[in-house]
Amino acid sequence: MTTSDPTTSASAFDLEHRVDAVDTTLHSQRCAVIALGSNLGNRLDTLQGAVDALADTPGLKIKAVSAVYETAAVGGPEEQPNYYNAVVLLRTSLPPRDLLERGNAIEDAFGRVRTVHWGPRTLDVDILAYEGVVSEDPQLVLPHPRSHERAFVLAPWLDAQPEAEVPGHGPVAELLAALGGPDAQGVKRREDIRLTLPE
């Protein structure tokens, strides 16, 4: 079977089968928050492609997409290009680990390589929070570690979900204010560009 989905490959896990195997009624769905970041290539097109790929995922519905925020790279090698960051709010019947695998598949489809810790990347897809789940599993820590202290995460998260809270840390609005507000840590909201939800 051929498909236009760039995230589909022979090595991709059988997502549709897994979704069919679980109860996908509304009451079984959970809210999840996904952070997107890119600092290589056409950053805006890459983020939009990630949004589109998430929207095409069975068992997942995007509810909101934040504005795009630009910031300097945090950690890793010096003189990296600036990042474009955004946050996607969704509801999903996928368990956290399957959602993580889908995020990894999307990263791979957009040429993500993992050779340098905190190095430049075409795409980063991180689960920030998953409703009702706190995890210390090294493969999937929830909520995402350090998310509560990084303005480039909190600013778009607040934009996508004004009432959001970081489990164990408090409301996103208060956490961002404590850092200095939406412009803290050199974060800049890009009013000239935006991401769109697929129709």
Number of helices: 5
> What portion of residues is helical?
25-40%
Q: Span between N and C termini? A: 24 Å
Shape: globular
Write the element-wise H/E pattern from the N-terminal end onward: HEHEEEHEEEHEEHE
> How many strands, which pairing sense, and closed or not: the largest β-sheet?
6 strands, antiparallel
Task: State the secondary-structure class.
Answer: alpha+beta
Using only C-alpha atoms, the radius of gyration works out to: 16 Å
Average pLDDT works out at 86
Number of strands: 10
Strand content: 15-25%
Poorly predicted runs: 9-13, 17-27
What does this structure look like?
It is a single chain. The chain is 26% helix and 25% strand. The protein has helices at residues 15-20, 43-55, 96-109, 151-160, 172-179; strands spanning 30-38, 60-65, 68-71, 83-92, 124-130, 135-137, 140-142, 165-166, 170-171, 188-190. The strands form three sheets. Strands 1, 2, 3, 4, 5 and 10 form a six-stranded antiparallel beta sheet that branches. A two-stranded antiparallel sheet has the order 6-7. α4 packs antiparallel against α5.
